[in-house]
Amino acid sequence: MASLEILEQRLAALEQEVAQLKAASGQPPTPEAPGARILRQAEEGHAELMAASRKLLADLGIQGQPIGAKKLREMLLARGFTPEDNAFSREIIAMREQ
């Protein structure tokens, strides 16, 4: 998948360079390809998105690395929670009936 990402980046850079050459030669620019535009916008907004994500996690008091579903299940089982119990589902059903 990394090679596809590299190709997309190289294509976007090439399209940008062609547009710059056309602009320098006085030719009207061609419209930006939709895929290149989306990639450019994603790259431009990436740093802002990551900063907002870090702030949200900090505001919620969430820290550390994600543990994954398998590890979470192991931890819940170790603390006595059983999948057959369905306590969470029962609470949701009880709230609906109120």
Write the layout of secondary structure elements.
Layout: H1 2-25, H2 34-60, H3 69-78, H4 87-97
Helix pairs in contact: 1-2
How would you describe what is shown here?
The protein has helices spanning 2-25, 34-60, 69-78, 87-97. The chain folds into two domains: 1-64, no CATH class; 66-98, no CATH class. The chain is built from four helices and no strands. Helix 1 crosses helix 2. It is an all-alpha fold. It is elongated, with a radius of gyration of 25 Å. Helices cover 73% and strands 0% of the residues.
Protein structure class: mainly alpha
Tally of discrete structural domains: 2
Number of helices: 4
Output mean pLDDT.
Answer: 84
Overall shape = elongated
List how many beta strands DSSP finds: 0
Helix content bin: over 70%
Characteristic key phrases:
98 residues; mainly alpha; 2 domains; 4 helices; 73% helix; elongated
Summarize the structure.
The chain folds into two domains: about 1-65, no CATH class; about 65-98, no CATH class.
